Amino acid sequence: xxxxxxxxxxxxxxxxxxxxxxxxxxxxxxxxxxxxxxxxxxxxxxxxxxxxxxxxxxxxxxxxxxxxxxxxxxxxxxxxxxxxxxxxxxxxxxxxxxxxxxxxxxxxxxxxxxxxxxxxxxxxxxxxxxxxxxxxxxxxxxxxxxxxxxxxxxxxxxxxxxxxxxxxxxxxxxxxxxxxxxxxxxxxxxxxxxxxxxxxxxxxxxxxxxxxxxxxxxxxxxxxxxxxxxxxxxxxxxxxxxxxxxxxxxxxxxxxxxxxxxxxxxxxxxxxxxxxxxxxxxxxxxxxxxxxxxxxxxxxxxxxxxxxxxxxxxxxxxxxxxxxxxxxxxxxxxxxxxxxxxxxxxxxxxxxxxxxxxxxxxxxxxxxxxxxxxxxxxxxxxxxxxxxxxxxxxxxxxxxxxxxxxxxxxxxxxxxxxxxxxxxxxxxxxxxxxxxxxxxxxxxxxxxxxxxxxxxxxxxxxxxxxxxxxxxxxxxxxxxxxxxxxxxxxxxxxxxxxxxxxxxxxxxxxxxxxxxxxxxxxxxxxxxxxxxxxxxxxxxxxxxxxxxxxxxxxxxxxxxxxxxxxxxxxxxxxxxxxxxxxxxxxxxxxxxxxxxxxxxxxxxxxxxxxxxxxxxxxxxxxxxxxxxxxxxxxxxxxxxxxxxxxxxxxxxxxxxxxxxxxxxxxxxxxxxxxxxxxxxxxxxxxxxxxxxxxxxxxxxxxxxxxxxxxxxxxxxxxxxxxxxxxxxxxxxxxxxxxxxxxxxxxxxxxxxx
Length: 753
Known about the structure:
Helix content is 49%, strand content 13%. The strands form 3 sheets. Strands 1-2-3-5-4 form a 5-stranded mixed beta barrel. Helix 4 packs antiparallel against helix 5. It is built from 24 helices and 15 strands. It is found in: Cell membrane.
């Protein structure tokens, strides 16, 4: 019997039952946590590996955030490469590095450097695979063509109405662009999925209007838009094979959105009240007036127009609370069913519908995923809103669309939420938090109400301040402006938004399909009026419209990094934030705006006059001129005064000559001007190459200009806009530095094959 017991025979009562086969879900249940957690962490690698603790005094777990930053660094590295790498080689390297990192982690020998390298390679591979997967033809030069295809998108209203067409065929040789975006000059009712034929003037997607500016060609490439332009006449509806399932689904969604917008306008009439209600409920911002948009932007309330965390939280939270209250009203259900989980499911389904009907922008996707994690946390008994969940959402979105890393909405949305989660996590860790809650519970009803109001007001002020700091640098970099009175604007308007506009909007959204939304829409309109009045008052306090001037990329990255370090780091490590802060401030102080700007086409240039003011040659200040002037710190109200008039230029039928001066010329120093010639003919171009300091033309440069400083049309189209810096050398203004807006076409979004 002893032998039988040692061998575990069938006659032994203590024999173990046969092991069942371990399935993949069982493996992830038992071992999946090891991807993020370790039971023992040495001091050397604790900064990168998360630790499992529930103590309030324990340092914050920054491992998921740092890992997400490493992945973002890999994406940034890929997009900054001078030439397109081999996507499959990058993917193979990334897979090998990740497998090695996981193997080392399971064995307890993972080096932080190995993990960072693996995540950087994974980010670079994600960008390369994305670029290959959506590759489509990009137009090389302007053409006129007749194109036929299905409408896949409609934006704007009135004269700025644009349609996106998935091209089926065109009248020229060669492969057509997969998708084009066209401006409609004649009003015509179109819907997504309609098959149309148009005659259009097509041009390649434009690059940045200044070096370091927003690259429209980059965004267009990842939207598979190979050309932009305008339509001659009216589109003709034709017969083509039915569109695919994607366009059919979009057509149905757009039809629902249009019906909701019509219901809103029927209840509220025309004007900004109805337009803002439509923007908040279905994401249609095409009807908002420019004055309202400008007031909201200057008062720091532009985030209200973007359906993001605030809207999704109030919307889904309101539905959850309503569903929970409704279920709790029936004791039989409340006692037998997990009503909070049922309410979470209802809220999640409603949030999904809100996502689809709101247009699904990047901030909305981020907000939806965060809300989904919160409700999934309710369903599984876990915390949903944390730095870890935010990092997972960011990585998930970037795996699908790595180009979103350069989207201003993505950057501002995640920066704001990241800093807010960190600040409120610090607040929750305070030892006095529980004590204060217990003290409030012992107060009388009136005191509890006042205490709650003051706590809410303080939370609103802190939220506005933290979000403003987190997004201020990013906004200044992308838009050359900030909201100087944004804190005041949010304190005045957000109570109306939180307690009137969005609760009434949630009810209106649910009742609109039944035609019963007039009362909640009227209440919502009243709250919108209060918000617009607050925005108008706050905007009137600023004389400069918050214009800051152009910010260099290094300064923006360093200042943003300093904010992250200050709010995320543990204890004394926050002092490290002084390093990027110092670098950013020094870079900002050393930056000097250009003295001459040349557009990528046409005769538009900007030059600095003898008094140091930047002036443009445009007869009407358009987008490029506005961007240049705003980058020089000029407020919009001064744009018209910065136009170069005829008396400021020496012009004849063959061209013009304008004079430019450096910004940092010493006072009292007489400097000969730098002459810029704008040539309108080949004969004038040859003469300007001999006499002018620089010649700008739309023609191909002749051989006589080979040794002169001249810029021809093909070079401008290829390299984009040009910025030049001048200095006084020997009493003469000379060029010391020049920078093109984009390099030679070595990447696919700039036309490289």
